[in-house]
Structures are given as C-alpha cells and as structure tokens.
Amino acid sequence: MQRDSIPISDPVSIEDLNHLAVRARGIIAELRKRMLLPNASKNPPTLSSEKVASLCGITKGQLNYRIKNGAPPGTVASRGGRREFTLEEAQAWTKIERSENMRPKGGKAVTIGIAFFKGGVTKTTTTMTLAQGLSLLGHRVLNIDMDPQGSLTTLHGLLPDSEIEDEDTLGPLFHGDQQDVRYAIRKTYWPGIDLIPAASAMFSAEFALPAQQMRDRNFEFWDVLNKGLEAVRDDYDVILIDTPPSLSYMTINAFFASDGMIIPMTASMLDMVSSAQFWSLFSDLAASISKRLPDPKKYDFINILLAKINNNDTTTRAVRDWISTVYGGKVMPVEIPMTAVSGSAASEFATVFDITKYEGDARTYKRAREAYESLALAVEESIRMVWAKREAK
User: Whole-structure pTM over 0.90, yes or no?
Assistant: First the structure.
C-alpha cells in the first residue's frame, strides 16, 4: 500500500472523549431499563419451601410441621399454589433455626477485604454473592464499593456517576469532610444488605490522602476507613469491601480496616505470577506502615478462593496443584466453577442469587448456586472463629 493511500483520521479531543462517556452512560441506563422491566430497578427473588428448609438445615417436612404449629408461613404463589417465601421471611426463619451461628451479644462486625491487584478474578461477583449468601443465612451485611469504576454499585442496580455523586461515596470521608461512614450508607433492593456506593469522582481520594499526609506528618492515611467504620460495627454482622484492582491509597485503607482477607484467583499461570507480586507489594507496604503502629497489623484469616474453574481443562488441574502447594491450608475447600449461569446473570445486572427461576439447564444452575452457598458457609465459619476469639479475650 502506498503511504499516501493510508487514511488519516481526525484528532480526538478530550471533549470528544467526554461525549463518548455521556453516550455510554445513556446507553447503559437504557439497557438497565430494558433488562429490569417493569420498573428499571432490581427486585429480590422469592424462595421455595425446599430452599428455605435447606438454608435452615432442616427438612421440608420439618418446615411444614413448624408452619402448621404456628410458625409464620410464607406467601402462597399463584404458580400452582406452590408456597414461596419472601427474602425477609426466609431470613426470619434462618435467624431462628440457625441461632447458634448468629453474632454473639455485644459482638462487632467482622470486616473482610476482597482483594487482588488484577482485574477479571471475580472480586466484585465474589463480594456480591458472598453478601447475598451470608444474608440468606441470617446475617446483616454492609457492602462497601471502593473501586471508582463502581461495578459492585452497578450489581446493586445503581449506575455510578448517573445516580451516584461523590458525596454519596467514601470520598468525603477520605477528604476529611466526614468522620464516619454513616452518611454514605443506603438501603438496597436486597433486605439485610446495605451499601456504600462508588463513583468515578471518588478517585480524587488518591490525591487527597497523600496531600493530608504532607500537611500533617502525624496523619495516619492508612487508618481513615478503619476509624470511619467504628461507628457502624455494632450495626452489622459482616462488612465486605470490594477493593480496586491496584495498590492504591484506598486499597491500603481497605487492607488496614479488614480483619480477614479473601483473595479470588483463577487457575491460570498469569494469576499465579500476579499473586506473587501481590504478596510482595502487600507485605512490603504493610511492614513499612506497621513500624508506625503500637502493634503490628495481623489478620484473623487470609483465604484463597479459586474461581472460574473448568475441571475439564488439564492446565486448570495443574495450576490448581501449584496453587495448593504454595498456599496450603489457606486455599478454601470450596471452588467456584465456570458456568454459563454466572455469565448470563451478570449480563442482566444480576447474580445467581437474584434468580427466582432459571430458564436454562437446571443442573448447571444448581451447581453454580450450591458453590456460592458453600462459599457463604465456609466464610461464616471464619467469621464465627473471629467472634469466638474476641469473646475469649
């Protein structure tokens, strides 16, 4: 091809990029409206008697016996007269039937950071499904979106930037305009889960925190979120933090506010390599900051969650073995399989727990949902361990 035959495109200005952003937000809002008909907002699912009984750890017969003897029944759906329960009704059942697993009197929320310095490892999906799973088990959860991209906020049915302003996020806390996080907490479509949302303007915290550090050498830039959460730790059983996929001032705050960490990883060599970099950067930074603390930072647990697992792939099996060799007992006993259910749900601003009736292969849906239910049960064990340790002190 002759050089003079190559077409020359017009230069792209910053204003052009802004127009693209506006167009993209408009199209996403329209897509949400179509997917979430009739009211363009998310609605909680209903649960069958079988599912409620399973969550409670009893049989359907035992559930029906309790209902006949005065326990509050679920609503009767029009579909064949089959009994169905609202989320709030199901949660009432699990809190009673699983009372020994609930937060002890006087106990405080356990804060868990979901982190990895790489995108595409299901951090946001893990945060959302874990919150839903723990909520179904009877726990009260606060979800915190610390990623300026706001993916967790989107999964709650809200559009960052269009519906979420900077003052609705943790931005004012990091700028020093607020002293605790209560101002940013909002109810969600899912009973038992509250949210602190995120929006792109929140990224300004990455400049505000070091600026405060320069003005005041005694300012503890890593402890802002931890102090901000203190006012609400009596209000929740669990606080889950979805972190940005990078080492940032906000990520550091999430690390130092957390009692435990969950690190989602796929069984790929790239994630294996990235994990080594993650721990190296993380440990160096934590060690540096810990020198300024009266007591070095310690975590009650750090768990590795293998996600998007394809058991038919020989490479997956090999990498899983390597990961187990490196992390040993820190690898969780549950794995999240790669299924079509998660992909189709995500394309509709949803998770597997949002689905009342799956239209595809029932076995595939059951496998996906059971994996996330097992994850919630495994994490609940870690949470109960933390509560027991605190009570013993």
Answer: no
Residue 1: what pLDDT?
47
Q: Which residue in the block uniquely carries the two structure tokens 């209902």?
A: 67
Helices and strands of the chain, counted as H and E runs: 14, 11
Domains of the chain: total: 2
How far from the centroid of its chain's Cα atoms is residue 105's Cα? Answer: 26
Instruction: Specify whether 93 is located in the same domain as 116.
Output: no
Q: Range of 185's domain?
A: 100-392
Which pLDDT value is given to residue 246?
A: 83
What one-character DSSP code corresponds to residue 73?
P
If we measure between CA atoms, which residue out of 125, 114, 119 comes closest to residue 274? 119
In the chain, at which residue ranges do the beta strands (DSSP E only) sit?
A: 47-48, 75-76, 83-85, 110-114, 141-145, 186-187, 193-196, 238-242, 260-266, 301-309, 331-337
C-alpha 261/C-alpha 280 separation (Å) is 16
Can you tell me the distance from the alpha carbon of 350 to that of 42, in angstroms, rounded to the nearest whole number? 8
